[in-house]
Amino acid sequence: MKAAEDFGPWLARQLKNAGKSQTDLAEELGMTRAAVSAWIVGRSVPRDETIRAIAEVLKTDLETIHTRSADAQLGLPVSWYHRPAHADGGREYGNAAAFAFEADVEVLAREATQNSLDARLDPAEPVRVRYTLHELTGEALARFREAIDWEHLLPHYEALTAGNGKQGKVSRTIAAGLRDMYQHDRLVLLRVDDYNATGLTGGDYDDGLFAAVVRRQLDSHKKDAGAGGSYGLGKATLWATSRLGLVLINSTLSEPHEGRTERRLIGRLDLPWREVDGRELAGPAWFGRPDPATKSADIVRSWWADEETVEKLHLTRESAAPGTSFLIVGAHDVASLVPFNGTVDEEEISEDDDTVHRMHARLVDALGRNFWAAMTGGGDHKPHLEVSVRTYRDGVLIRDEHVDPAVTQPSRTRALRAFLEGDTVDRLAAPGQVARAIVPLNVPLHGGQSRGGVPHEAVLLVTHAEDADSRPNRLVSMRGNRMTVKDSAVTNVPIGTNPFQAILLTGRAAGRDAPGAEAAEEFLRASEPPEHNKWGQTEELRLSYSPSAYRRIAALTTAANTAVRDLVAVPRAKRRSGGEAKIAGRLKVGGGTKKARPAAATALPELDNVDALIDETGAWSVTVDLRVSAGVDTDRPVTPVAKFDVRSGPRPAAPWKDLVAVSGCEVVDGALQLLPGNRKAVFRGVTDVSRHPVRAQLTGLVVELRIGKGEQA
Fold it and tell me: Do 258 and 70 meet the contact criterion of CB atoms below 8 Å apart?
């Protein structure tokens, strides 16, 4: 905290900033000029009641006068400052950093929440993030436009749209945003609040979080090797999500600046080069109070706002906990143009509701999919993150939803919780269990050394997939901040494997006491692109390690997939004699009519592979691969029939309890309908153990194919 300046020099500067003389102050206070002069030169100081009167004259508060660590600025008008065009004639038609990402609330949720995680203040408590959608119409919209001095901004927008979007993509986006606001008399605000975060600390122009976010590009100001962001690009998604290029900011600081912590406000506008009233402007503009300490009198800086101003700007925070609120003005979501598939019944949504409800649903989905692990706790480990999404229209709450990882990702959440609670097994033997294995990663050394390294033990978790998991048999990978980095399918899984979900925890996510955790954290962070959605070759990886360092990541991926396949492989059921249960490896043509058919009509798919086991209920579980030749008539259904392979007499039928098409076919009325154009089909069947004439362990199984539909014999 900056030490208080002597009262006399401080007061003299405030009078100069306000355009007042010592005589003016004396007259407004009803005192002599000599008394004011004595304060200025330090011969005396005013009494408490006089200080209160000085605060009223300067239109500031008592705290500012007592701390004297900053100029009194509450009386200065809030205004817009637009950066002048480059003297050499250079022009930028938009912020290049914003083009690194789509104008997509899913991308915004990923980048903004990652930044909040990186700014977590108390590591023993979760950072709380809230997304608030607020659609303004009518009088509410008019009041907000007045608060941001819309009449001043309008000429700048008109200068960009007058050329019918010829200046580029940004101008066309702005034109669309203005058209939507005026035609429908509505504006969507999207606010991102975080609590238990550092806030935007530091000076307006000094090295620090505030300047990195508000003033600079490609400055992440993140020194922790475990931070999610590293390029300084993620903040650009805030402005990219605004059709008007406008974001307002309210920050509560974790450490005082100018003697204060609450309601530090600033606005930033990102526009292309433009010419307004004969002045050429470079692009960005800031909303704040004039800074008398700068060379140009119209340059603005952040200011300490009163509660009324914060409320008018829709930036009121729900508590005094440190953190930052970003208000995206004119929020839009390109991906929300696709058909609605959220959690609200589409028939219950009117056309006017559609935009904010779609955005709400996509935010919930993206947050649950990318940050389910950060929101999961277990044992003595609290979650890293708590998230909620709410939606308002003109101040009226219409939706409020807490993002629950157990709902969005039930299997994966169960697996991570079991790991945190120390409740894992070596191999899956029953539903609900979580298997754990170690996957080695040899982290390369810095400086181009291709040999040697730091051994790291990543943790692999595997569990059965639940019905709510729409995409089973996948491996998600993450490091210390527990944001999903990779999400890929596990290849070459044995036929007949039960659906599963797998998680690879690397770096600090594997446990701070895991061997090589810090080295792995730094290495994998260097291998991530700006989107932080994969691990692979990057320029930073080549420069910090070696051109071949990415091969260590490929080895990690291969080892992880191999370990997954080993954990999910189901051991063959054993007969009482100790031998494996058998299945007759043949498909027979049978059933249907006895009338002779042409050869082409009776052509059936050929057996490619059969995998079977006796499950824990005593039923046969069979997965069959079929090879479909060119002569097979795919228009005619095929019925698979299971029979017990007895030594003598007719084979008893083993009716199916479940018959499921895996690929290349569909199940229609108990028969397989082959899909045209596919050369392979896979189906899975489980017999009905209640209708077994003999125990499955006492015999083998034969699977036959029959032309047409029909009940099993």
Answer: yes
**Nearest-10 crossing angle of helices 7-18, 33-41:** 120
What number of CA atoms fall less than 13 Å from residue 558's CA on the CB side? 6
Buried b (16+ CB within 10 A) or exposed e, 601-624: eebbbeeeebbbbbbeeebbbbbb
- Phi and psi angles of residue 83, each rounded to the nearest 5 degrees, phi first: -65, 130
Split at pLDDT 50, 70, 90, the class of 351 is very low
Which amino acid type is present at position 266?
A: I
What confidence tier does 711 reach under pLDDT thresholds 50, 70, 90? very low
Q: Are 412 and 468 in contact (CB under 8 A)?
A: no
**Distance between alpha carbon 13 and the CA centroid of its chain, in Å?**
47
Which range of 445-454, 517-526, 610-619, 659-668 scores highest in mean pLDDT? It is 517-526
Q: How far apart are CA 210 and CA 220, in angstroms?
A: 11
Tokens of 138: 């009518």
| Confidence (pLDDT) at 227 | 46
Q: Which residue has the higher pLDDT, 604 or 483?
A: 483
492 φ/ψ sector (left φ>0, alpha ψ -120 to 50, else beta): left
Amino acid at 605: P
Asked if 73 contacts 302 with a C-beta cutoff of 8 angstroms, the reply is no
Q: Which of the pair, 608 or 660, is modelled with greater confidence?
A: 660
Calculate mean pLDDT across residues 175-195: 94
Alpha helices in 86-217 (DSSP H): 105-118, 138-147, 150-161, 169-184, 209-214
| pTM passes above 0.70 | yes
Q: Write out the H or E segment, with its range, that includes residue 567.
A: helix 550-568
What does the mean pLDDT of the chain come to?
A: 83
In this predicted model, which residue has the larger pLDDT, 258 or 83? 83
Token look-up 């952040």 returns 302
d(CA 565, CA 571): 12
CA 695, CA 646: separation in Å to the nearest integer?
A: 12
C-beta contacts of 659-664 below 8 A and 24+ residues apart = 659/683, 659/684, 659/685, 660/684, 660/685, 662/623, 664/626, 664/628
CB 489, CB 474: distance < 8 Å: yes
10 Å Cβ neighbour count for 246?
A: 24
Determine the pLDDT at residue 205: 87
pLDDT recorded at residue 137: 95
| Whole-number Å distance between alpha carbons of 360 and 133 | 7
**Which residue is it, tokens 């277990």?**
378
Q: What is the 3-state secondary structure (H, E, C) of 126-161?
A: CEEEEEEEEEEEHHHHHHHHHHCCHHHHHHHHHHHH
pLDDT, tens digit (0-9, with 9 covering 90-100), for 319-331: 999 999 999 999 9
- 228 or 317: which leads in pLDDT: 317
539 exposure class (CB count in 10 Å sphere: 0-12, 13-18, 19+): exposed
**Do 398 and 390 form a contact (C-beta atoms < 8 A)?**
no
The percent of residues above 90 in pLDDT, for the chain, comes to: 43
**Residue range 276-285: average pLDDT?**
91
How far apart are alpha carbons 666 and 675 in whole angstroms?
7
Long-range contacts of 39-46 (CB under 8 A, 24+ apart): 39/7, 39/8, 39/11, 40/8, 40/9, 40/11, 40/12, 41/8, 42/6, 42/7, 42/8, 45/7
- CA gyration radius, the chain: 34
Which DSSP letter does residue 300 get? E
